[in-house]
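User: Predict the structure for this protein chain, please.
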Amino acid sequence: MQRIVFQMLLALALTFSLSACGSDSDSSDGAGGDSNSSNGAGGAGAEGGAGGGNVPASPDCPAEGDKCPAACTYLAACAVNSGICVGYEAGNEETQTGIYESCLETCAGLPVQATLVCGHTECSQTVALANGASEDFKNGCEGNSDAGGAGGEGGAGGAGGAGGAGGAGGDTWGQTCTEDADCAAPTDLCVMQPGAAEGYCSIACGTNADCTYEDWTCNAVGGCGDNALAVWCGPPSEIEEGGGVLVECQ
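Assistant: Here is the predicted structure, written as structure tokens:
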């Protein structure tokens, strides 16, 4: 169950990457700015809303109701028009619309993720979130020609070799897994990055004191304690690579 929650919270960024990486190469318009702009980001309106060459100052999210259109508009505009992602051609409405529409699809089923984006105040935060969660998005953003593929291998970066599966009392921390059932005591949680075929065995935690394996920390999405949307013991490098979404619960 917790493995599913962890993947859910990061899956939005993966979906962005799947649509964006494919459409870039078809474009032939230059970085042209405003010329074919279709009415900007356009607030919460459903569909239609990827907009032209503008980048909103921040997500224009409503206080109540569906935040997905605003969050998706912001991500699409930031990815294509902010200049952060050199792999995307500024003003390419086809790429921007592809990111926006895929985002809307996923966000409709997982609206909690729009709340994360709506808390951002600049494009660098939103792009960093997507880059940290998805290798595919990062490749597309950086213009790596071998990006391609749906869903990436490499994802989970399991915490270093399987540490000997062995016998009943064997230490299963960091062991490769595909589901929670693969993780024997003392672990019981398979932590997987979105799009990854494999993850690593760990446990849920409240603070760093619960994480007794190597230098692992208690990593959380959404804050610690009652604010946490998901918590698990994992490598401290995840905090650095999490684009500001992950925090360490000390």
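Strands lie at 176-177, 189-191, 199-202, 217-221, 230-234, 246-248.
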